[in-house]
Amino acid sequence: MRTNIMITISTLLSLIATPVLSKEVKVTSPNGEIKVTFSDEQDQLSYNVEFNNQSVIDDSALGLVFKEQAAFADGFKITKVEKSFNYSKWEQPWGERRVVEDNHNEVIISAVNAELNNAIYSIRARVFDDGIGFRYEVPKQDNYKQVEIVKELTEFTLADAQNSKAFWIPARGWNRYEYVYNETPVYEAQHVHTPVTFKTSNNVHLSIHEAALVDYAAMTLNQRRPGKYIADLTPWYDGIAVKTQTSFKSPWRTIQIADDATGLLNSDLILNLNEPNKLGDVSWVNPGKYVGIWWEMHINKAAWGTTDPNAPHGATTENTKKYIDFAAKYGFDGVLVEGWNEGWDGDWFFNGDVFSFTKNYPDFDIKQLADYGAKKGVKLIGHHETSGNVTNYRNQMQDALDLYQDLGVEQIKTGYVADGGNIKRIDDKGIVRKEWHDGQFMVNEYLFNIEEAAKRKISINTHEPVKDTGLRRTYPNWITREGARGQEFNAWGTPPNPPEHIPMLAFTRMLSGPMDFTPGIFDMGFRDQNFQQNGQGAKINRPQTTLAKQLASYVVLYSPIQMAADLPENYEAKMDAFQFIRDVPTDWEQSIALDGEVGDFVVFARKERKTERYSGHDWYLGAITNEDAREIEVSLDFLESGKRFEAQIYRDGDKANWINNPYDYFIEKKPVTSEDVLTLKLATSGGTAIRFKALN
Amino acid sequence: MRTNIMITISTLLSLIATPVLSKEVKVTSPNGEIKVTFSDEQDQLSYNVEFNNQSVIDDSALGLVFKEQAAFADGFKITKVEKSFNYSKWEQPWGERRVVEDNHNEVIISAVNAELNNAIYSIRARVFDDGIGFRYEVPKQDNYKQVEIVKELTEFTLADAQNSKAFWIPARGWNRYEYVYNETPVYEAQHVHTPVTFKTSNNVHLSIHEAALVDYAAMTLNQRRPGKYIADLTPWYDGIAVKTQTSFKSPWRTIQIADDATGLLNSDLILNLNEPNKLGDVSWVNPGKYVGIWWEMHINKAAWGTTDPNAPHGATTENTKKYIDFAAKYGFDGVLVEGWNEGWDGDWFFNGDVFSFTKNYPDFDIKQLADYGAKKGVKLIGHHETSGNVTNYRNQMQDALDLYQDLGVEQIKTGYVADGGNIKRIDDKGIVRKEWHDGQFMVNEYLFNIEEAAKRKISINTHEPVKDTGLRRTYPNWITREGARGQEFNAWGTPPNPPEHIPMLAFTRMLSGPMDFTPGIFDMGFRDQNFQQNGQGAKINRPQTTLAKQLASYVVLYSPIQMAADLPENYEAKMDAFQFIRDVPTDWEQSIALDGEVGDFVVFARKERKTERYSGHDWYLGAITNEDAREIEVSLDFLESGKRFEAQIYRDGDKANWINNPYDYFIEKKPVTSEDVLTLKLATSGGTAIRFKALN
Predict the structure, then answer these.
(1) CB contacts < 8 Å between A and B, how many?
(2) Which residues of A are known catalytic residues?
(3) pLDDT tier for residue A536 given thresholds of 50, 70 and 90
(4) Confidence of residue A119 (pLDDT cuts 50, 70, 90)
(5) Residues above pLDDT 90, as percent of chain A
(6) Strands (DSSP E) along A114-238, which ranges?
(7) Which residues span the domain enclosing B263?
(8) In the beta sheet, which residues pair with residue A678?
(9) Is B293 found in the same domain as B264?
(10) CB 3.0 to 4.6 Å from A220: which of A150, A171, A441, B607, for a disulfide?
(11) Phi and psi for A5 in degrees, rounded to 5?
């Protein structure tokens, strides 16, 4: 039973109103290392950020531009300042850690334009030790009742742009978030999605993102002048960014700041800026692990549809039973089945209206399978692929969710496969409109799906989503999502995910929230079984990793649900390695990033959370590297001193390399304590996965 | 006296109405090498293009999306086809050639959507031997009276994208068109301005652009899928692309096609698609050459304003007289003076409202100088720098143009210095709106300026313009423009224009129309007079060329007005080299690109047009190269056979190189005829300029 525990030291210290003369407002982090200064001297509100007394964000403008009314830009003067601080702890029903600390100083700055009939807006900013967040709050006021925001003027002017590196994916592209990450000088990162991560010449790491994206357009960043990014909101089909009315609040614009790379990972900034759980009792949200009828379609052994002459229908009653048996035998909680419903035989990519979300194919007896699974303690995981035709989905959503509820399905993987900008909806005049996955329309549409699912005690795993902005705090049934290149790109992507992909994700995508990456592929030879002998390992589609790195990924890439993605027979052929996947939990008492550099390598340690299944005593470690083999020394001082553990180490063998010897793995066990230091030897695109089994 | 001469063989061969069953419509170039096929089979109009029986443009969609009404996309069927052809010649009052051939096959395809109340639109396409143009024509119809276009669906799907190179600049950036050109695989050219040039794996050269951009947004290209570009119209501040009403026509979308690089240069496609001259007698438009008070400000020897303690005001009566004397002595027609008017002492970049276009500074006696020049046959060239504050300019434009007309000023250089997207206008409610230089608003604003100038018999040279789309045919007083990185970037740019810049421009920017590049810098040492000795030639701001390349640029970069950009004393120090600039004309009977490769080198031959000053017998040649020195064999068979010429050759010396020996030039003269072949030896970033003086 999970309950929320709040330990409040003091929520409000002071409330100060400052006279009109004040031109600068400063607010610092609790530890004093981050200082934010707001000012109205530039005739437009602006801010800057210092870290350890050096500028990281130079003077950057704030403001909003509307279609009808005059902009909130020039002529706004600070008229009121309210300061407060917060120190509290709160508990997550599931997550990377159970207890989260929220320690920040806050300021609310109100600014008025006397020449615009006293038009007014506020900036609320919170400064934590791990970064800052600020948002616009616009109260109801004459002349700004209904507003259409065409542009947001928020800037992020990188102080060290000339010498900094950027780690980024391009924004507003056809492939949404599914791009290989780039590492370039800042100046080459023109138009980017968030999270976007920067590393300055003195190793300061920054990551810009947003929190609590609700009823607003997603923010991308566009480099308008060298080093100066400006918010670039994803528009509706008609070019407007946000259609709203006062009073309204923007999402929090966030800047994580750390003096090293792992400082970005040991942060709860995004969660802390989100609203608390509003669903009440969420004991029906269950972390766990699953298998499924999915990978076989991506490697062309089966088909989603029933009429492919070259590939049998994957989603059959018989095949599903096989997976349920496998899941039950090896302790998996769910079986995902894709291709169960009518519509896959049509031209679904271009015309998703063909999908039914209530009618199964004749060879998939959904009721029988739900019962079969229930008897064995395994649940069916639902699948709603919309192919971006959201009106078709909307029209069936209630019935489809009711159907699953009746069948005891408690998780659904949704999909919105469509090019960026090509989500199809029918408006109230019956006219087709095309929207972006991260425009305001879809931001609301995804959340509607979450809310409807919550009414039926169903959790959602969104594929082709809008980026995560921490709403899992407010809606704990929004358990995970895709929103980056996942394992499937290793089946057919051009190119497959490169060796640096996961070390890149760890410091970018993973700062936004959990990812359903679906690790755990054991057979790399599905395109060419002889790839090792004929030296073709780098040229075919396959995961560009060693097998040990696949194991380590379960610890490195956090998600409350994790898939063992491969076919059952590939696990049964390597039961020793598979043991790690069987053991690893997906819910944590605590997580610590121990070491790493963006795009190079990362080491995580996590302590399991106590549940019926897990004692709550064991720790797990995952270390992965990019194309460079490396040795990493890891101190085990995160373990509780005085306790003894058996380290069950799954590592790359001495001759392992990802290209033609990915299967060389080695398993060893040895007693360890918190006094020990391990030297991890990672092969090229390799990894180490460790279970620290508590002995006392 | 220039008059338009039309030689029409036949303008209309046939008018055929084709029945509704027709699904494909084919139209070819007169020589049969280019074949365009339109189709409605995809349930949306589409087209493709073959060249010499190979696909160059694969199936590409057509259509328009509106804010209110249903889109012109799916459901349109071809109902009517009209075919015709044209063979004519017409004369330009000035230009690269006097007589232009217009030889094309045309088709007008009408398409109707029965389920949208028979909504209808047409595509008019013309296919020439040097490429194609097509445009949308939307007649007046119920339900589509007032329309706001939010998106154009026109695609350009490059058939050989995977193996093609792109030569491009990024679109929608802060620096408008002023970027160094990129040469990359197509897949890296995400969002580009036009003209954009491609080179396929079998040397087919394509360049995509538009013609006759009037009352519409400019088109940029965005790569939506690998190799598939879609039109990306530059929006109004509120996100709408085009605000118009039926009936309307879009600009022509153009694709130049050639089997080699120089085929792109020997083309009049853009001009041929524009409307004929509507200004009537334009004998007051005078090609010529000018000098001016301009470069000295860019190299910090003088200032535009009057209060800079480090630099004297450039635009003084005394300094201008010096330039008028120089111009008169050496045969230049005009003197440009920047900084003559009040406003340069304020914060003009951020607040251009400070500019007056009628009040001169006290130390600039404009009336006296106009008279002084008139007596010597030299005209003042006006200057209107708006700094992007177009309402301020509009409010003064009539008075400012009248003033110049009274003073006998017949050319004005205008300027719109402001970041992309930051043109400032005040709407009719008094609200500030920010627009793009190439959005529909500015497209109309620039043309208004042209039309108002024409009423006063004034010609316009637009800096920070919208791109050229051939409107000089319709408005021959729109003589030239900037719209790319010009010479000024060599004074202070980061970086200066690289050695390949002019060979890049020749095959991209220059396909759109003339450029006021302002060549002719003789002194490369204005940042460091000792750069040659201390080996810093590549590290300072200066033209990254030899001196001979500066001379050759007058022939390579076409413009009806050309500046001798340097300070008078630098020309007087090298009178032998300066002779070429004194001789070279700026108006041509004929132009032929003889050789070249995109970004590498180019060779042009041009024959002078007969005027009062020029006999009409001489030819000129300009050859320039990028960072690679090269030898180019040039056959002189473009010269009239049987005539004798003295070739006056200005070339790189044997030891010349751009980095530390740019001044090594050599002048020789020798008799030649059309039988001769010259071997041109170009240094690294070097050039050769030749005047072929007719002897008989």
Answers:
(1) 61
(2) 488
(3) confident
(4) very high
(5) 94
(6) 119-128, 131-138, 146-152, 155-158, 165-168, 182-185, 191-192, 196-199, 205-211, 219-225, 228-233
(7) 5-272
(8) A634
(9) no
(10) A171
(11) -115, 125
